[in-house]
Amino acid sequence: MRAAGRSMxxxxxxxxxxxxxxGLSVRAVVGGxxxxxxxxxxxxxxxxxxxxxxxxxxxxxxxxxxxxxLNIAIVLAFLALLPYRRPTKHVWKSRGTFIAFVxxxxxxxFGWPLVIFLLSPLVEIPVVARDYRRAFGAWHPEAIGTxxxxxxxxxxxxGWWQIYRARGLVTTGxxxxxxxxxxxxxxxxxxxxxxxxxxLVTLLLWPILVAAYVWLARQEERQxxxxxxxxxxxxAARTKRFIPFLV
Length: 247
Fold this sequence. Notes:
Blueprint: E1 13-14, H1 18-42, H2 53-77, H3 89-110, H4 113-123, H5 126-135, H6 141-165, E2 168-169, H7 181-196, H8 200-228, H9 230-238
Antiparallel strand pairs: 1-2
Helix pairs in contact: 1-2, 1-6, 2-3, 3-8, 6-7, 7-8, 8-9
């Protein structure tokens, strides 16, 4: 985590110059549009069970393929709100896992009939599929998943805003409670989609995604100690990594 230049991390460090400021403005617009589109597509599902009207309209107008591409574009656009730094090997690995999760999710979520027909005997889990909704009782998994995703996106967006408006080590706002609120947001966002549209592929990918961001957070913290020394060690001693008071 460097406090100057264009090398940024997600554990509460910021700094920059005029060129970076212009770049952040572009990323803010891209991420903001993605957030608005996501809420417009799925926000209504929290209070209304079933496919939102907007989703049905997109599917009828542009077809299933268009809906898949739109969702992938929206989710990947949120990468603009994620902590940025020079593309080191482990950063590309963690983001690659996130992208793989999204693409697998969209494929399973909307379905490719031929793929489902050919592979359903291999991926179907009858007992899980039969008992899945029953386990939620009166709560609809779609509404719960959407709420989790929106909460995760809120953490990503607020954390992004806090870290990029500050300079140096950020220990206030969301960073007062956890050291990596944006990574917590990513985990909650993907967990929401997993609850909403569970599949064998995403069930297998999600733990890998979580492990990738836990590992990335630890790598960033080592660099933060090198940059800020005792100040970061003191901050880490009193602040949990992902969940307040727990982890």
